[in-house]
DNA sequence: CAGTACCG
DNA sequence: GACG
């Protein structure tokens, strides 16, 4: 699958918003392939079920997570890390579907980051009331590659802050099909998701799914 | 501190 | 009770 299948599929329904140097929102970017994405997602969660991981502080995360790709992001009492195996099964994470890879590469290119080769996709499932507090993505080996974040399902408010936790984050409403890309000077910016409100999406149901693509190694 | 609790 |  190529860039054309995404960026050129329905250009009149897509637009781009710049958040700062190195960060953009690609509105409705994933919409054209929502069915293929959701089908692939079912395959992944069937093999590597969503689960609530434990933070190093011993707290259960409200957001349920799983992974696909060579590396998966995991957390437990010993800390955050990338692992090639699912600690719940001992098996490798499900492979990254072609449609995921094509989506991530097309979004990165559209945002000005050519040659993005993600080897990790963290999948987050948010129920109403769940949240992800402000954090940095900093467990990757190098920070040259951008982060590509795909929103599916019910709306959420994304927080996008600065290089320091104290920097007041901007609030960015995200809906089904929106893709946020940040890299370069924005790569280590703090970000998070405010508690979700009750809502229903006709295809996804009463929750939000987020796909976060990274180059872990 | 990828968390919750508490308080104004 | 929602919000910061």
UniProtKB/TrEMBL annotation:
InterPro entries: Alkb, AlkB-like, AlkB-like_sf, Oxoglu/Fe-dep_dioxygenase_dom. Its cofactor is Fe(2+). Signal peptide: none annotated. One of its GO terms (molecular function) is broad specificity oxidative DNA demethylase activity. SUPFAM superfamilies: Clavaminate synthase-like (SSF51197). PROSITE patterns: FE2OG_OXY (PS51471). Residues 117-217 form the Fe2OG dioxygenase domain. Keywords: Dioxygenase, Iron, Metal-binding, Oxidoreductase. Its EC number is 1.14.11.33. It is an enzyme of class 1 (oxidoreductase). This is DNA oxidative demethylase AlkB. It comes from Undibacterium arcticum. The lineage of its organism: Bacteria, Pseudomonadati, Pseudomonadota, Betaproteobacteria, Burkholderiales.
């Amino acid at each position: 699958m190529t860039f054309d299948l995404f960026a050129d599929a329905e250009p009149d329904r897509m637009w781009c918003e710049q958040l700062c140097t190195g960060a953009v929102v690609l509105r409705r970017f994933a919409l054209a392939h929502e069915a293929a994405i959701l089908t692939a997602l079912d395959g992944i969660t069937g093999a590597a079920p969503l689960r609530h991981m434990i933070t190093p502080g011993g707290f259960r995360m409200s957001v349920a997570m799983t992974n696909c790709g060579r590396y998966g992001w995991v957390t437990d009492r010993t800390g955050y890390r990338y692992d090639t195996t699912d600690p719940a099964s001992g098996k490798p994470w499900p492979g990254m579907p072609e449609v995921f890879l094509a989506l991530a590469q097309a979004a990165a290119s559209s945002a000005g980051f050519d040659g993005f080769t993600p080897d990790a996709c963290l999948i987050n499932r948010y129920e109403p009331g769940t949240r992800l507090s402000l954090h940095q993505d900093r467990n990757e080996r190098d920070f040259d590659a951008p982060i590509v974040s795909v929103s599916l399902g019910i709306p959420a408010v994304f927080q996008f802050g600065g290089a320091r936790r104290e920097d007041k984050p901007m609030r960015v409403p995200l809906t089904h099909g929106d893709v946020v890309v940040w890299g370069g000077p924005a790569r280590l910016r703090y970000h998070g998701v405010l508690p979700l409100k009750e809502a229903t999406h006709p295809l996804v149901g009463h929750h939000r799914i987020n796909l976060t693509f990274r180059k872990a190694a």
